[in-house]
């Protein structure tokens, strides 16, 4: 029988789980709640229980399982040690060892959720066919994942691909969640786009269809597409800082492709157009003409990538 | 007999060559001129001739040679294809294949000179003991090399580690050699420091011991150490932009250590102090407290790194 692998993506509210064939087909997908009480001590037990139930139901033995991969919301070292997952209440411990013990599955890999999503997009999403890619997730914050030679770049402190906190504007006065000012996240996340819109509305310099008490990244991009000048200014800023950050990244690692995902990216082609234009203007000759792709797996990127981690 | 390897570093004027033991001791070092006539067609022939002579002199056979590594001034792909070495007159061809044919040595590796120098510093220089490092060479330009997991990050176009052209100042009016404005190289190279000094002298806003027709990076750092205010302003700009660029790099790849070399770095501790201060101010929490080291191999970093390339 062809082997299977589990992909698990631990979020703040639910744990997404998937059972995959080793060639990348998902045969089953489900979710369980993330029990955060008592510093999240039940989370891994719940996952192990759910994995065992699924194996029993599908009459799978340990020999049928190629491995189990887990994405977690925080920095993770190569060996599976988490440094701090504030969202889950976790401190420092080795997630891989714990899950091995709880499930009996030997091949357990653990990665940061943004990095794992990047690997998922490489395997079966917008980055399929590439080995060296950077994924940017434009959600509430800006997440990033770097894949080199088909493998996640973890970084020496598990903080590789933390591109949301590249400082792209030295003049910014507002403080980012990280404590610095001028981070990419302040311009390119959903929250960041709304922040820019609020500021622009306060200035009242341009007529606009945007309304202060009903702002969203979707509304801003929608208005920009319809020719709203104030919204177009915001989209221009968004594109400038995101394109600049991707240019910085390229100067360091020279990837093949950028894959852009997250809620903000649902605005569509306007995102790729703005970002690639600004990228080209700010990168040196040898790095021009990179591919820019839309992410394709949505919220499933994490389970795909987690499963893919165990197949090296 | 213990095997040996050759390390070759092709520069615009001379080719540096070294014979190494596989544990990193150089047993012989020499140079030959870089013959650039007829689009550099004699360069590799001269190298092969010199290698064969050295083997004959030391009664080494092909069985005694673990390999031959070459650093070249330009982008190189993983397979040894150079894309353009303007300094040598070279177009696109596979250097590794050519050298294999000319020398009979099977294990030939080719890398970009800045990347190769970084590998040399990791092997036997300021980065010894580390596996994930970024080397910054502050010379006429600003070169960079990224080592991850003990291996050179080449990049998909051979342009990995081109950190001298990270755009750190969006307000700059002067044009960089690459055609963009505001590249790191315009502030952190020897040429860049002199450029900043000239501009500062023209403004005549501060008294200074610096003299317009006798400017050098060395003079600027010397004056700054002696308390010259105008020179201190320049050093501050240098540190701000270099520290910022290293912060950007860290947000992408989270290395263990930065190794700083090149002529400008001879100014000593003041460089590390300025750069690390600005780095810490511009990087997110998880990436603070990186090691900053001085390069130790000087102009020999290239031959060390070239030799090291063949030992994987």
Structure description:
- Two copies of one chain form a homodimer.
- With 312 residues, chain A is of the alpha/beta class.
- Chain A has two domains: 4-123 and 300-309, 2-Layer Sandwich (Nucleotidyltransferase, domain 5); 129-296, ATPase, nucleotide binding domain (Nucleotidyltransferase, domain 5), CATH 3.30.420.40.
- The first copy, chain A, has ten helices and twelve strands.
- In chain A, α9 (269-282) links the parallel β11 and β12 (291-294).
- In chain A, α2 packs parallel to α3, α6 (190-203) packs across α8 (229-253) and α7 (217-225) crosses α8.
- Chain A binds chain B through residues 75, 83, 132, 144, 146, 148, 153-163, 165-167, 170, 178-180, 183, 244, 247-249, 251-256, 282-287, and chain B through 75, 83, 132, 144, 146, 148, 153-163, 165-167, 170, 178-180, 183, 244, 247-249, 251-256, 282-287.
- Chains A, B: It holds the Pfam family ROK.
- Chains A, B: It is an enzyme of class 2 (transferase).
- Chains A, B: Its EC number is 2.7.1.2.
Task: Spell out the blueprint of helices and strands.
Two copies of one chain form a homodimer.
Chain A: E1 4-10, E2 14-21, E3 26-33, H1 37-40, H2 43-57, E4 65-72, E5 81-82, E6 93-94, H3 95-103, E7 108-112, H4 113-124, E8 133-138, E9 142-148, E10 151-152, H5 185-188, H6 190-203, H7 217-225, H8 229-253, E11 257-261, H9 269-282, E12 291-294, H10 301-309
Parallel strand pairs in A: 1-4, 4-7, 8-11, 11-12
Antiparallel strand pairs in A: 1-2, 2-3, 5-6, 8-9, 9-10
